[in-house]
Amino acid sequence: MIELKDGIIRKEKDALLDSGINLQALLDASPLALTLLDLEGRVLVWNKSAERMFGWKAEEVLGRTPPPFVPADKTDEFKTFHRDAAMGRMRTGVRVTRQKKDGTGVDLSLSTAPIHDSSGNIAGVLGFMLDITEHIGQERALMEADDRYRTIVQNLQGIAYRLNPDYSPIYYHGDCVMVCGRTEVEMMAGSPDWIEMVMPGDRPVFVEFMEEARNSPGKQVHLRYWIKCPDGTERYVYQLMRYVPGTGGQAGFYDGCIYDTTAAKLKELQLTEVAQELN
Questions:
Q1: How far apart are CA 45 and CA 115, in angstroms?
Q2: 165: cis peptide before it, omega within 30°?
Q3: Quick one: 273 exposed, middle or buried, by C-beta within 10 A (0-12, 13-18, 19+)?
Q4: How far apart are CA 237 and CA 137, in angstroms?
Q5: Which stretches within 216-261 are classed as H helix?
C-alpha cells in the first residue's frame, strides 16, 4: 500500500510539474518555504526551505493531509484556504500561525495560487510561506511599549508632546486642562498657538528656548515661564524639549513635557516677600 501510495504521489507530482516552466527548479531554488498540494490537500512537494523552516524532511510530509505543520485548531482555516485556491482564488500575504516539528509556533505570511495542468484545469495548489515571527515579535513589543507609554502619560501630572519641525503638533497627551486650561483636541487644533499663550514678558526667552532646541539636536533644553490660560488665569510652567533629527529621509521632530509649577512658584514668591519684609 505504501509503495502504491508513493507511486500515486509521484505520478500526480510529475503531472503537475509537466508544464512549460521548470517548476521543480523554482521550488528547489526558492528561499521561501514552498509546498505543492493536490486537490485533496495531500503534499506533493516540500522544498528545502520548508524543511529548514519546519524541521520535517520531505519524506515525512509527502502524501499527508492536512500537512503536519498545520496545528489542530487551524485545520478548518487550512481547508478553507485550500478549497478557495482549488477554485481559482489567490491569496497574498495572509498572516497565519503554523507549527514546527518541535511543537513551537511560527508566524507566517502565506500566499497561495492554483496550479494548472497542461489542459488548463486546476490540478493543485502552490503555497509560499515567509517566516515573519521576528517582525510580529517587534510589532508586539512596540504595542506593549506604546501601552506602557500611555499608562505613564495617563498618570503624568503634565503634558507629553511631539511636534513637527514647523512646530505643528503630532500629539499632545496628558492632563492638558490642568496645565493650560485647554483640552487635547484644542491643543491639536492649535488655536491659539502655544506661543500666543506665553505672557508677553516671557516671549523673548521662550523664542530663544525654541531656537536653542533647534540648534542643539539631541540636547534636552528647559525653561520656566508664565502663560495665560483661556479663562484668564496665569500659570507658571516648566517645559522640557529636545530636537530629534530625522534619519533615512524621515523628518525630525521635537518632543518633551510641560508641567504646571504654579503652586511652587507662588510659594517661592511668598517666601521672597517674607524675606524682604524681614530685611
A1: 13
A2: no
A3: exposed
A4: 40
A5: none
Buried b (16+ CB within 10 A) or exposed e, 84-109: ebbeeeeeeeeebebbeeeeeebbbb
Q: Chain-wide mean pLDDT for the chain?
A: 83
Q: Is 211 exposed, middle or buried (0-12, 13-18, 19+ CB in 10 A)?
A: exposed
> In angstroms, rounded to a whole number, what is the distance separating the alpha carbons of residues 113 and 88?
7
pLDDT at 141: 66
Q: Round to the nearest angstrom and report the end-to-end CA distance of the chain.
A: 109
Instruction: Report yes or no: 164 and 263 within 8 Å, Cβ to Cβ.
Output: no
Closest by Cα among 128, 123, 113 to 13: 123
Residue with cell string 508632546? 161
Residues pairing with 33 in the sheet: 129
List, in order, residues 6 or more apart from 38 with CB less than 8 Å away. 12, 16, 44, 123, 124
264 vs 192, residue with greater confidence: 264
Residue 20 pLDDT class (50, 70, 90 cuts) = very low
pLDDT at 202 > cutoff 80: yes
| Distance (Å, whole) CA 103 – CA 134 | 17
